[in-house]
Specification:
This protein is of the alpha/beta class and 719 residues long. The chain folds into 4 domains: 249 residues, 2-enoyl-CoA Hydratase, Chain A, domain 1 (Alpha-Beta Complex), CATH 3.90.226; 175 residues, 3-Layer(aba) Sandwich (Rossmann fold); 107 residues, N-(1-d-carboxylethyl)-l-norvaline Dehydrogenase, domain 2 (Orthogonal Bundle), CATH 1.10.1040; 106 residues, Orthogonal Bundle (N-(1-d-carboxylethyl)-l-norvaline Dehydrogenase, domain 2). The strands form 4 sheets. Strands 12-11-10-13-14-15-16-17 form an 8-stranded mixed β-sheet, with helices on both faces. A 6-stranded mixed β-sheet has the order 1-2-3-4-6-9, sandwiched between helices. α2 links the parallel β3 and β4. α5 packs antiparallel against α9, α9 runs antiparallel to α10 and α17 runs antiparallel to α23. The radius of gyration is 28 Å and the shape is globular. It starts with a strand and ends with a helix. The structure holds (S)-3-Hydroxyhexanoyl-CoA (3H9). (S)-3-Hydroxyhexanoyl-CoA (3H9) binds next to β5, α3 and α11. Pathway: Lipid metabolism; fatty acid beta-oxidation. It is found in: Peroxisome. In the N-terminal section; belongs to the enoyl-CoA hydratase/isomerase family. Its EC number is 1.1.1.35, 4.2.1.17, 5.3.3.8. One of its GO terms (cellular component) is peroxisome.
């Protein structure tokens, strides 16, 4: 709703009230319309201030209403009525003014912001565009290039930047409503014609067509198939080329195509999933709202390789004191040199000024004796990690949480090396750890609720999307990757090329296909894992049994490349070739194509034409099938957890909602049928055998993804 009061004798104060972010629900819109009409009617009222309760102006349209039959007064005419009013209206902005919230403020004649405010039009990240006049008013106010930047990226700006851009008229550190009232009294009686943004011409720009062509090209490249950023450019182009009323028509038309699209549904699902996973619960019954995290003032990182450095930076950026330990002198020196630059770039990326960081370096593990939490990030070797955990258990003060950054080793086994296994959890970061948003918090059967809560809270402090997952080989993300990569290898054996497989995945929306990712992260990483699992063995990659391991189909292609020293970008050759070791631009490699041809001949395989649909189905459905197994095993609490892990850690396109949501969009019956088809064709590939949970969901009528937990609960209760 919206509350109305008369202040300072002549100012109508409208306060938006819809906790927690004063979203513009039907009731709020109704409240604004009626209170505004009241203010206009009242002869005592000479001016109006609009603000939000509880320190937040407005988080925009109510996203929860999007899937429903929208009722109540629409936003656009409401904002027009505010702009057309003959009494001055000031938006008093504190906290957030986002989406429809900022559009409402742009309809006001003046905007004053508290210095804590963040403003933006983030609709693009919900698969939409700012359709309450945002695409038409913002370019008129701040110019086309700046508006294009804000609208196509959805980034939030600080009050200071908003002032610089001209979005707000004044920034204050004082009480926002008092300042707004003072301000509106000072402008009472001044003509308002020059304050109505919709009447402004768009600031002219020379060579408009070239500007839009270039922007469109850039946006398309970044969008990876998402349609909202393209529509945002088209809407701003309308502002630049059409009169306001026609521009508004175009904005409405474009919004209509986005609003009902599967992409918008997927992205809005991601928005709510992100909030849902922070409300974690684990099989022991521990939950986010009953488990108290312990404060962490000082942390330590053991091992300053690529991961350790990123984790140290991520921790230091939160303002914590960090002890960074590396026993190898050379590695320590390199880390010391690299860290300031990483911190500086991090500050620039986050739009904050570089503050003094409290990192101390040591070669001696005993330097961690007084920290509250340690993150071990040494080489991925169980024997080495065990030794580190034994040492930490002896050295650290009582109660120190011991975390491992392993990407898949047994967290419980590491916990058993310590005197207090309840203090041990996994904190699985993704490279580069100070940039990537995902954190898997891995609980073992003995991890205490407090240890999980502390790791989850620390993740949040670091700006991560933290997902609590159970302990199994590869946890959630890497476990699902295995069948996906396996299918990609099989497709090469059957006639596909890395270019084709990657092309199909990139067209689907991944920023990089599976083979390019493999080249980037190093082929030797997977090779080492396969050796540890007893799949890859030296010399076993040739001969008649090369394509069968442990009774199942196996492709030694990755092992063969590693045996040749082709580790990917770092060696200049992998699935692609690069102009030099460390090169970034993947080029098709004729050597690899003849290697594949020879390999097929050697193993009596006849290359066939494989279409992109098969590439997608085999890679993605194998991965999704493993996702169902993970749910069945209780390793992830719900489909949202898996989806966010893939969106934030593995480049799954957000506009496809994550693998489990995508399965629901495709139709669970279809996914099941295709898995059955491929499993019949390849009975020696267990990953293709449809998971019983998937069958159960189909038998229950394929409920929507938000109702899967009910079926999963039933499955677990019957175990
Ligand atoms: C014609 C239409 C035109 C228009 O252009 C379209 C739009 O405006 S599109 C909209 C454009 N606007 C946006 O895209 C802004 C989206 N919102 C945000 O970015 C952040 O929520 C915000 C920065 C505001 C606060 O961050 P924070 O302090 O970390 O808090 P938090 O994030 O944890 O949220 C707390 C609770 O509020 C809930 N909720 C939040 N917003 C909305 C909403 N608009 N609606 C409904 N609910 C919303 C959220 O689900 C959560 O619920 P719960 O049940 O407690 O889990």
């Amino acid at each position: 709703m919206a509350q109305y009061s008369l202040v300072a004798g002549s100012v109508g104060l409208i306060t938006l009230q819809n906790p927690p972010v004063n979203a513009l629900s039907a009731v709020v819109r109704k409240g604004i319309v009626s209170t505004f009409e009241r203010a206009l009617r009242d002869p005592k009222v000479k001016s109006v201030v609009i603000c939000g309760q509880n320190g937040v102006f407005c988080g925009g349209a109510d996203i929860k209403e999007f899937g429903t039959n929208m009722s109540g007064p629409p936003l656009v005419p409401m904002i027009h009525a505010i702009e057309a009013a003959d009494k001055p209206v000031v938006a008093a902005i504190e906290g957030s003014a986002l989406g429809g919230g900022l559009e409402l403020a742009l309809g006001c004649h003046y905007r004053i912001a508290h210095s804590n405010a963040r403003l933006g039009l983030p609709e693009v990240s919900l698969g939409l565009l700012p359709a309450a006049g945002g695409t038409q008013r913002l370019p008129r106010l701040i110019g086309i290039p700046a508006a294009l930047d804000l609208i196509t990226t959805g980034r939030h700006v600080t009050a200071a930047e908003a002032l610089q851009l001209g979005i707000v008229d004044q920034v204050t550190d004082h009480k926002i409503v008092d300042e707004a009232v003072k301000f509106v009294l000072s402008v009472a009686g001044k003509p308002l014609d020059a304050r109505r943004i919709s009447t402004y011409p768009c600031p002219p720009l020379s060579d408009l067509d070239t500007v839009f062509e270039m922007v469109m090209q850039k946006v398309r490249q970044r969008a990876h198939g998402a349609i909202a950023p393209i529509a945002c450019v088209q809407a701003v182009q309308a502002a630049a080329t059409l009169p306001y009323a026609q521009g508004m028509e175009r904005e409405k038309e474009l919004m209509a195509t986005l609003f009902t699209s599967g992409q918008a549904r997927s992205m809005q699902y991601c928005f709510f999933a992100q909030r849902a996973v922070s409300k974690w619960s684990i099989p022991s019954g521990a939950r986010w709202d009953t488990s108290m995290p312990r404060p962490v003032h000082k942390a330590a990182v053991i091992g300053l390789g690529t991961m350790g450095r990123g984790i140290t930076v991520a921790l230091a950026q939160t303002g914590l004191s960090v002890v960074a330990v590396e026993t190898q002198e050379k590695q320590l020196m390199e880390a010391k040199q690299a860290m300031p630059g990483m911190l500086e770039r991090g500050a620039r990326r986050r739009g904050v000024s570089l503050t003094l960081h409290k990192i101390t370096y040591s070669r001696d593990i005993r330097a961690v004796a007084d920290v509250d939490l340690v993150i071990e990030a040494v080489f991925e070797d169980m024997a080495l990690k065990k030794k580190v955990f034994q040492q930490l258990s002896d050295i650290c003060k009582p109660g120190t949480f011991l975390c491992t950054n392993t990407s898949g080793l047994d967290v419980d086994h590491l916990a058993s090396q310590t005197c207090n296994p309840e203090l041990v959890v996994g904190m699985h970061f993704f490279a580069p750890a100070h940039v990537m948003k995902l954190l898997e918090v891995v609980y073992g059967p003995r991890s205490s609720p407090q240890a999980v809560a502390t790791a989850m809270q620390l993740g949040k402090k670091m700006g991560k999307v933290s997902v609590a997952v159970g302990n199994c080989r590869g946890f959630v993300g890497n476990r699902m990757l295995k069948p996906y990569v396996e299918q990609a290898f099989f497709l090469l054996e059957e006639g596909a090329t890395p270019e084709q497989v990657d092309g199909a995945l990139e067209e689907f929306g991944f920023s990089m296909g599976v083979f390019k990712v493999s080249d980037l992260s190093g082929l030797d990483v997977g090779w080492r894992v396969r050796m540890a699992d007893g799949f890859a063995e030296p010399g076993a990659s040739s001969g008649p049994s090369a394509r069968v391991r442990q009774g199942r189909r196996y492709s030694p292609l990755g092992d063969l490349l590693c045996e040749q020293g082709r580790f990917g970008q770092k060696t200049g050759q992998g699935w692609y070739q690069y102009d030099k070791p460390g090169g970034r631009v993947a080029r098709s490699d004729p050597w690899l194509h003849s290697f594949l041809a020879e390999y097929r001949t050697r193993h009596g395989l006849v290359a066939r034409r494989i279409d992109n649909q098969e590439v997608l189905e085999r890679c993605l459905y194998a991965l999704i099938n493993e996702g169902f197994r993970i749910l069945e095993d209780g390793i992830a609490a719900g489909p949202e957890d898996i989806d966010l892990i893939y969106v934030f850690g593995y480049g799954w396109p957000r506009h496809r909602g994550g693998p489990m949501f995508y399965a629901g969009m495709v139709g669970l019956t279809k996914v099941l049928q295709r898995l059955e088809h491929y499993h019949q064709a390849h009975p020696d590939v267990p990953f293709m055998q449809p998971c019983s949970l998937l069958r159960r969901l189909v038998a229950s009528g394929s409920p929507p993804v938000h109702r899967w937990r009910e079926v999963i609960k039933k499955v677990h209760s019957q175990l």
